[in-house]
DNA sequence: GGGACGTGTCATCCT
DNA sequence: GGAGGATGACACGTC
């Protein structure tokens, strides 16, 4: 016996994107490995695994009334049952659940379910997975129940499928209006669907169909902005194209080579969505924020029929970085991710949506939705604010007549190519609208993170698994690099290239004109953040940069060990710490250098002053010496004027000199003897 | 436009 | 051996 673990709690971004698509009337089925199989601690479920959000205080195992299987029941809301995969007949189970008025969650449609649950604004956010079932049936898919003529055939949203696809129109889509007891077996229907598709696959030459499809795609993309109101012929073409898309996708799906919904498919879907596909959102039904307790019986819609497109989980994951940070503390973990979505405030008039028919309008609509989010929403949800900025940019470009090429160049220069320049697929950019679409699809979540992911640790578009603890070498994980899916999106680069490229892209991205563009069109909040802060935000690092840098090394290591962090997160954290430390060191170094320079300048000043003093003293001494010499000269003449020789004649001072002996006696000697006497021996003088 | 200055970052050496 | 400090060098932004 196994428990099913929804992936959604870690896939907020994906969920959010799915919500957006759903808001626009697109049905996205994330029909891939959405679950982790968690072994139970006990058969009866008294100890449900709650490390991932399943709290034993909130859920318990409960046998289905008819026996044969177990479900996960939400405590306090016992009618919300979670299907056990070992139930032999899901259809039987479904009927039982329907009979009880219990919302049933088809296992393979959980994300769509989640989308509708969240979109319906289940006030019980933490239990939105199970609790919002009824509301979800109405919130987005409820157009059928409203009796809309367009939505009725294709509850999931695409009436083309209802018309052209026997799968969608004839079998699946008929269920929502059926009584609960007549709801068909979803799994069995899926098998039937696959069988039908396989037959169709065999009947159609898919190679030629693909070529034709691609041609139509390019053509369709070029005309997507003008095809608001097509005549019936064009509508038929779109129907055919949509069918071809479904065929091609189903072909890949059946061949096992398809991981889901490709970017091309999604783009084609977006560009070829007729008005009716967007009109499935009933203006009378609040999409978000509604607390109405929708009754499943009155809005009985099979969730599986809300699905008209499949999206590869991996591809979807590439759309945005995931929140991969898990605390080991389950209490903290369980209540984190849901709340922001419940704060999603739908304020846009649904009428606006109804008339949005092209990609430009679609993204404008998404933009409007995003603007309704609070910063707190954006902070906690995985879809980064910069993602919205990117959407905003394109919205501005289209709504305010801004040059889309200029905008595109801005992003390209900043390392944020709106088109999937790293994408190695054969998608060609036939016009700007495709660039917009690809940008919206293939973008990274952050201006910074794009280049960072692209150029730094996220080589190959590595978006680590949420459950993977990261205590291994964070630079040696190359498994993801070999994933074709990831190589499909991003390229590999070395770390040094990453840094340099990051520097260059940063410098390029905010120079001159681009800065003006940013300040004109964007909230400058993120711009005020440091690069590391933006990086940390992009990777949802649960610590502040200040903490990372200033924390003592022991606390730092303890922190890293206490949290489940991805390799990329650990790498970024260490880089942030290293750069932060080095930044402080550089500041200190410069401060010391400045202090040293100032100190040396003081020394120079002091030495100069001392030199001036010495020179002044020297001058004074020289003056004193001169005075002394003058006095000595005067004394000389005075003495000689009083001296006479033996004949009484005055002694000529030019011929004689006074010589002082060591004993104090003074002699008068001829000058010629003074010199030689000094040289040879001291002369004997007379007084 | 060019220079001075401040700042962040990296590489390298050293503790 | 790793963490971190110190520092030269470089790039870039700002004035």
From TrEMBL:
Residue ranges annotated for the BZIP domain, each copy included: 572-635
InterPro entries associated with the record: bZIP (IPR004827), bZIP_Maf (IPR004826), bZIP_sf (IPR046347), NFE2-like (IPR047167), TF_DNA-bd_sf (IPR008917)
UniProt keywords (A-Z) are: Activator, Coiled coil, DNA-binding, Nucleus, Transcription, Transcription regulation
List compositional bias (Basic and acidic residues) regions by residue number: 202-215, 228-255
Against Gene3D superfamilies, the record matches this protein to:
Transcription factor, Skn-1-like, DNA-binding domain
Subunit record text: Heterodimer with MAFG, MAFK and other small MAF proteins that binds to the MAF recognition elements (MARE).
Q: Which residues form a coiled coil?
A: 597-631
Q: Where is the composition biased (Polar residues)?
A: 216-227
Pfam families attached here?
bZIP_Maf
Which cellular components does GO assign to this protein? nucleus
Family (UniProt):
Belongs to the bZIP family. CNC subfamily.
Q: What is this protein called?
A: Nuclear factor erythroid 2-related factor 3
């Amino acid at each position: 016996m196994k428990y099913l673990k929804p992936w959604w709690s870690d896939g907020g971004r994906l969920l959010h994107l799915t919500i957006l698509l759903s808001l626009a009337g697109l049905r996205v089925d994330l029909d891939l490995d959405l679950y982790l199989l968690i072994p139970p601690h006990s058969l009866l479920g008294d100890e449900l695994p709650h490390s991932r959000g399943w709290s034993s205080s909130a859920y318990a195992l409960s046998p289905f009334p008819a026996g044969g299987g177990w479900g996960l029941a939400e405590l306090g809301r016992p009618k919300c049952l979670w299907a056990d995969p070992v139930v032999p007949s899901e259809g039987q189970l479904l009927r039982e659940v329907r009979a009880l008025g219990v919302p049933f969650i088809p296992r393979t449609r959980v994300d769509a379910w989640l989308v509708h649950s969240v979109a319906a604004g289940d006030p019980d956010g933490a239990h939105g997975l199970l609790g919002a079932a009824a509301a979800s049936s109405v919130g987005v898919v409820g157009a059928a129940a409203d009796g809309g003529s367009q939505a009725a055939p294709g509850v999931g949203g695409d009436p083309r499928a209802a018309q052209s696809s026997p799968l969608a129109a004839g079998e699946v889509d008929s269920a929502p209006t059926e009584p609960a007891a007549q709801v068909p077996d979803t799994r069995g229907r899926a098998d039937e669907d696959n069988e039908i598709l396989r037959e169709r696959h065999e009947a159609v030459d898919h190679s030629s169909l693909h070529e034709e499809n691609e041609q139509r795609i390019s053509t369709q993309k070029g005309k997507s902005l003008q095809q608001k109101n097509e005549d019936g012929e064009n509508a038929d073409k779109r129907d055919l194209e949509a069918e071809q898309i479904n065929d091609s996708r189903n072909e890949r799906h059946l061949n096992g080579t398809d991981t889901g919904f490709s970017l091309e498919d999604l783009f084609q879907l977006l560009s070829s969505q007729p008005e009716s596909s967007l009109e499935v959102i009933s203006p009378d039904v609040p999409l978000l924020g509604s607390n109405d307790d929708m009754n499943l019986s009155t809005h009985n819609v099979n969730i599986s029929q809300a699905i008209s497109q499949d999206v590869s989980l991996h591809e979807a994951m590439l759309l945005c970085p995931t929140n991969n940070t898990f605390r080991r503390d389950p209490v903290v973990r369980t209540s984190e991710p849901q709340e922001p979505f419940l704060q999603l405030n739908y304020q846009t008039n649904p009428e606006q949506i109804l008339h949005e028919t092209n990609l430009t309008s679609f993204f404008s609509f998404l933009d409007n939705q995003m603007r309704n989010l609070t910063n707190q929403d954006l902070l906690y949800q995985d879809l980064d604010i910069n993602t919205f900025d990117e959407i905003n940019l394109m919205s501005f470009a289209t709504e305010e007549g801004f040059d889309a090429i200029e905008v595109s160049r801005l992003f390209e220069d900043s390392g944020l190519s709106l088109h999937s320049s790293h994408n190695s697929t054969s998608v060609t950019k036939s016009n700007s609208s495709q660039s917009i679409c690809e940008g919206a699809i293939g973008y990274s979540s952050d201006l910074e993170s794009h280049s960072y992911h692209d150029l730094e640790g996220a080589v190959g578009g590595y978006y680590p698994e949420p459950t993977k603890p990261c205590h291994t070498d964070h630079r040696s994980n190359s498994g993801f690099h070999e994933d074709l899916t990831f190589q499909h999106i991003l390229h590999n680069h070395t770390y040094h290239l990453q840094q340099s490229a990051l520097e260059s892209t940063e410098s390029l991205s905010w120079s001159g004109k681009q800065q003006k563009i940013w300040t004109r069109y964007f909230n400058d909040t993120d711009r005020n953040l440091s690069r590391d802060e933006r990086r940390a935000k992009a990777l949802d690092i649960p610590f502040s940069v200040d903490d990372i840098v200033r924390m003592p090394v022991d606390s730092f290591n303890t922190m890293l060990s206490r949290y489940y962090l991805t390799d990329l997160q650990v790498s970024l954290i260490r880089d942030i710490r290293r750069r932060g430390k080095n930044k402080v060191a550089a500041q200190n170094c410069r401060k010391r250098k400045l202090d040293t320079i100032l100190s040396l300048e003081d020394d120079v000043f002091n030495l100069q002053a001392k030199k001036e003093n010495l020179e002044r003293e020297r001058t004074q001494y020289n003056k004193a010496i001169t005075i002394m010499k003058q006095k000595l000269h005067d004394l000389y003449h005075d003495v000689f004027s009083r001296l006479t020789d033996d004949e009484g004649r005055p002694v000529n001072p030019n011929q004689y000199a006074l010589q002082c002996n060591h004993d104090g006696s003074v002699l008068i000697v001829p000058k010629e003897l003074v010199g030689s006497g000094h040289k040879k021996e001291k002369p004997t003088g007379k007084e």
